[in-house]
Design goal:
single chain; mainly alpha; six-stranded mixed β-sheet; disordered N terminus
């Protein structure tokens, strides 16, 4: 991290040379943060494994229009992330790092977009600091390494809004036209990544900014006719094809996955209205203490002077609207607020840049104090876990986790004390280096500890099955569906008495195959002549074994799961 602070603020180099050097350093930082240890852990069940299994099935079937999970139509998300992951799996193989390349790549792209936007809006230093803030924020770092759809859509929404604010600053001409075409293309890709919010969210932000600040004159020309053609050419083909092939798709996609997700608790993800406040405050660590000073500096002193702050106001409105939108939603998950991080990073970059030019970095005291307090408290909590592993309860690998917790705690507490002491001596630039070094050390421990932190996996069971299963054998998951088992076994499986996210009601053809069975039908299959493999949780084994006449052999064992076979 220290190398990032050596970027000079005054240089005789040309603009293009300085930009190339900045981009090179940012790529090195991104490669290190987002790429190191990307394949250390199996794909987490269910989310990561789901977004690996659907692309795997696309490659296996050759159908890239209708997404399927375990051979059953799956309409919860549009296909862009699936397509990208499928391409990665085709090129690099089925390893975990290959599956996670897509979010890591888009996270790096998001950093470069923030740098470019910040540089265009407020100069090189603002772009640099904004990119550094975004890349090193804890939540952004974590989701750059997780196979979810949220990083892709977050970066594409950001690209849409960056193109807009940069385009309205340009006079009519080629550059303005290309920026607006970039806006339409990014919004279309965001729609293909996550649905209607891909264009509704950035569209609402742009409209509110134009309305509140009366900036309509800056909108013209915005190339609406040709821009809509660009949008339609990208976003419409898949929507038309999937609707044509699947009559049941439209209701599920537009009503169940958009309207009901936002307005009801039917998806089981209800959280209180304030849920995202601590998510953002902790997610932007180690920069949490800089949020309020940066926001206060970006706000206009008086509403009558708001015209002087229109660009900053756009960033504030962007962050506020997305935060309020998802806070109002009845369905909340942590990654939903990722689109808030780019505008916050730019606001903080604009705050840091001029203050880092002064010898003592005046005005950064509150930010460093915030880091010291949060880092210290978090470090003490982790060290307490080491001293009393029982605080983790019945968590597997409690002792191993507690040792990693102690190591991370030492780094965090040491960094907190060091930054505080440097702050007292007004050596804030060294304090900043120490803060970033502490964050890098903490992140390194998290990555190294990830195999111990990872959820229980069925990967080893799937590998065992893959070596032994023969055509005609039946493979079932008992009272559940283990997404990672399908991914690692490279096959679809059946289920026993399971009614989860597998939408059999939407896919009569899949239901008719008879692989998803009742308890009674399972008993018939298990006691029949065909060879049957069964994957189940250890906790289910006692109940299963207690059934009259049940016989089976344990073929392989994992931490929380078993693989059984009825007969050899």
């Amino acid at each position: 991290m220290d190398v990032a602070l050596s970027v000079p603020t005054h240089s005789t180099e040309t603009e293009s040379h300085s930009s190339s050097r900045d981009i090179l350093w940012l790529l090195v930082i991104c490669f290190t943060l987002f790429g190191f240890g990307l394949g250390f852990t199996p794909l987490a069940n269910p989310d990561e494994a789901r977004y690996g299994e659907i692309p795997r099935e696309m490659l296996a079937t050759g159908d890239f229009v209708t997404p399927r999970l375990d051979g059953i139509k799956y309409f919860e998300k549009p296909p862009l992330t699936y397509w990208l992951v499928a391409g990665s799996l085709k090129i690099f193989g089925s390893g975990e790092a290959a599956a996670r390349v897509t979010p890591a790549f888009f996270a790096a792209l998001g950093i470069l977009l923030t740098y470019a936007a910040g540089r265009s809006l407020a100069g090189r230093e603002t772009g640099w600091w904004a990119a550094l803030v975004q890349a090193t924020s804890l939540l952004y770092f974590a989701h750059a390494r997780l196979l979810l759809t949220d990083m892709v859509v977050s970066v594409l929404i950001s690209a849409t809004l960056y193109c807009f604010i940069l385009a309205v600053r340009e006079p009519p001409g080629r550059r303005r036209r290309l920026l607006f075409y970039g806006l339409y293309a990014s919004a279309a890709l965001a729609t293909l990544a996550k649905g209607l919010i891909g264009f509704l969210l950035p569209g609402a932000v742009m409209f509110l900014w134009l309305l509140l600040f009366n900036e309509w004159r800056r909108l013209r020309p915005f190339y609406l006719a040709t821009g809509l053609m660009v949008f339609a050419a990208i976003a419409l083909p898949w929507h038309l094809l999937v609707a044509q092939r699947n009559p049941e798709w439209a209701w599920f996609y537009f009503v169940h996955e958009h309207w009901l997700r936002f307005t009801t608790t039917t998806h089981g993800r209800y959280q209180p209205w304030w849920y995202f406040i601590p998510v953002i405050l902790l997610g932007v660590f180690p920069w949490t203490g800089f949020i309020w000073p940066a926001l206060r500096a970006a706000l206009p002193a008086e509403w009558t002077r708001r015209s002087e702050y229109t660009d900053k106001a756009f960033l504030l409105l962007w962050a506020a609207f997305i935060f309020l939108f998802f806070s109002a939603s009845k369905s909340k998950l942590v990654p939903y607020v990722l689109p808030v991080f780019p505008p916050l990073a730019l606001v903080m970059g604009g705050y840091l840049a001029p203050r880092m030019r002064t010898p003592s970095a005046t005005g950064l005291r509150a930010g460093f104090l915030g880091f010291s307090v949060i880092s210290g408290l978090l470090g003490v909590a982790l060290m307490a876990v080491f001293l009393k592993p029982k605080l983790l309860g019945t968590v597997a690998n409690a002792e191993e986790l507690s040792r990693f917790g102690m190591l991370a705690g030492v780094f965090l507490v040491g960094g907190a004390l060091g930054v505080y002491l440097l702050l007292r001596s007004e050596n804030t630039k060294v304090a900043l280096r120490l803060m970033l070094g502490t964050t890098a050390a903490f992140a390194t421990v998290l990555v190294i500890a990830s195999p111990a932190i990872a959820r229980a996996s069925t990967k080893d069971l799937a590998r065992t099955l893959e070596q032994q299963v023969k055509p005609g054998d039946i493979v079932l998951c008992y009272h559940d569906y283990f997404h990672d088992f399908s991914y690692y076994a490279q096959r679809t499986v059946g289920t026993v008495k399971y009614e989860g996210e597998l939408e059999l009601a939407l896919d009569p053809d899949a239901a008719a195959k008879g692989l998803h069975v009742t308890e009674e039908r399972f008993q018939e299959l298990w006691n029949g002549p065909q060879r049957v493999y069964l994957v189940l949780r250890r906790s289910e084994m006692k109940t299963l074994a207690a059934q009259p006449g049940f016989q089976g052999r344990i073929l392989a064992e994992a931490r929380n799961h078993l693989l059984l076979i009825n007969h050899l």
